[in-house]
């Protein structure tokens, strides 16, 4: 943490790391020797630890990481700060309760869009999406299914789409 103080000789605003508390420095403005206010580090520390903590204390104090001086500062904002974490979207059931439009589901099967040899699946899906509007669309999911053809009594595989929308 930084200490902010004024030079007692010239009144210059100074800021130093709190690890320098109690030391003497030269003021950069008036070149006079002044003492940094505050208590020196270690003056108000807790008594030495006992038990397991006392065994690790000398190891930590002599490590290279303990000797590195950190000069960190906390950013200060004039107004409200920006949100860095976006709020997640609400689940579909909550969204459905909050809106005046209810969630609806429409399944369009490929087999229902084939007319006398013409495949109208794309046209049918496009027409339905245009009717509900993009702003009401929640999701489009592809589906695959099996059914028995009435005429040939064979098991056929087919596909379609499931459209969830507000309507």
Structure report:
The chain is an alpha+beta fold and 167 residues long. It has helices at residues 52-61, 64-67, 92-98, 121-132, and strands at 2-6, 13-17, 24-26, 33-35, 103-109, 114-115, 118-119, 137-148, 155-166. It has 2 domains: 2-67, Single Sheet (Rubrerythrin, domain 2); 92-166, no CATH class. The chain is built from 4 helices and 9 strands. A hairpin with a 6-residue loop joins strand 3 (24-26) and strand 4 (33-35). It is rod-shaped and about 105 Å long. The mean pLDDT is 78.
Please, how many domains?
2
Extended strand count: 9
The helix content is 10-25%
Mean pLDDT equals 78
- Decide which structural class fits the backbone: alpha+beta
Strand percentage: 25-35%
Order of helices and strands: EEEEHHHEEEHEE
- Give the overall shape: rod-shaped
Q: Order the strands across the largest sheet as they lie in space.
A: 5-9-8
């Amino acid at each position: 943490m930084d200490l902010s103080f004024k030079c007692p000789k010239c009144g210059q605003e100074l800021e130093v790391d709190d690890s320098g508390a109690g030391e003497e420095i030269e003021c950069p403005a008036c070149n006079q020797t002044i003492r940094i206010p505050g208590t020196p580090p270690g003056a108000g520390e807790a008594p030495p630890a006992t038990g397991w903590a006392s065994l690790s204390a000398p190891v930590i104090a002599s490590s290279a990481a303990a000797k590195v001086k950190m000069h960190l500062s906390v950013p200060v904002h004039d107004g409200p700060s920006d949100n860095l974490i976006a709020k997640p979207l609400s689940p579909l059931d909550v969204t459905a309760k909050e809106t005046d439009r209810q969630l609806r589901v429409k399944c369009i099967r490929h087999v229902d869009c084939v007319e006398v040899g013409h495949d109208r699946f794309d046209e049918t899906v496009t027409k339905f999406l245009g009717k509900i509007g993009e702003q009401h669309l929640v999701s489009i999911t592809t589906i695959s299914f099996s059914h028995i053809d009435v005429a040939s009594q064979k098991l056929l595989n087919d596909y379609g789409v499931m459209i969830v929308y507000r309507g």
